[in-house]
Amino acid sequence: RGHGTYVEEEKLIASVAGAVERVNKLVCVKALKTRYNGEVGDIVVGRITEVQQKRWKVETNSRLDSVLLLSSMNLPGGELRRRSAEDELAMRDYLQEGDLISAEVQSVFSDGAVSLHTRSLKYGKLGQGVLVQVSPSLVKRQKTHFHDLPCGASVILGNNGFIWIYPTPEQKDEEGGGFTTNLEPVPLSDREVISRLRNCIVALVTQKLMLFDTSILYCYEASLPHQIKDILKPEVMEEIVLETRQRLLDLEG
C-alpha cells in the first residue's frame, strides 16, 4: 500500500478523497486538493515573485518557491555565452515581479523545492491571456502540454495546476528567445473563445473531471448552445460535463 491509504480489518481504505493510482502492485490515493510536487521534465506555468542575485523566485503552487537561475534561461536572440555582470544588472529587463512564465522542471532539491529552466524557444514570458488555477491532481500527464485547439485559442496545461489560455499566434516567433511579448489588442472573437474555454475548464474542475486537450475541446463543443456567462450556472455545468464524460467514454469504448 502507498500514500493516502490504510488497512482496517484486512481491507485497504483511502484516507483522503482523490484519485486512485496504481503502479504495478502499489496502490496510492492522490488527494484532490493538494500542493504541487515537482518532477523533472514537468511543464509548469509560474509567476515571478522576486528578483534576486543571479536568480528569480517563482510561485508555482508548490510548498516552497521555485527558482529560475539566470544561467538556466536563453538570452534574447538565443546567443550562448557565460552570464556577465551586465546580464545580472539587466535581469529586471527580462523578467520582473508579476510576470508569468512557462518553464520546465530541471531538477528537484532535497527539500522539495524546484529548479526551472526556459532553455527552449517554446518556453519564456507569457503575454496576453487568462490564467486559471486548478488542483494539480486534475491535470492529466501527457507527452505535450502545449495545445493549439481548433476553436482558435491555445492552452498550456501546467502540471502545477496553473493553466494559461491565450490566442493562437499567427506565426511562430523564433527571434525573441522567449522574451518578446505581443501586446496588440486581442479581437473580440478571440476574447469570447478564451472566456468560453476558461468557463469550460472551471466547469470540468467543479465536476472533478481530468483536464487534457480532448476533454477541454469536448466540453467547449458541448457548451456552444449556451451563452458564455451561463456556463457557470450549476445545472448547465452538470449538463455539459455529463455530455463531455459520455463522449470520452465512447472514445475509450
UniProtKB/TrEMBL annotation:
List the molecular function annotations (GO) for this entry.
RNA binding
Protein source organism: Ciconia maguari
Under what name is this protein listed?
EXOS2 protein
Chief localisation class = nucleus
Cross-referenced Pfam families, in alphabetical order?
ECR1_N, KH_6, S1_RRP4
Q: Cite the source lineage.
A: Eukaryota, Metazoa, Chordata, Craniata, Vertebrata
Family named by the database record: Belongs to the RRP4 family.
Which keywords belong to this entry?
Answer: Exosome, Nucleus, RNA-binding, rRNA processing
* Keyword Nucleus set for record: yes
Any one Gene Ontology BP term: TRAMP-dependent tRNA surveillance pathway
Q: Where is the signal peptide?
A: none
Its gene name is Exosc2
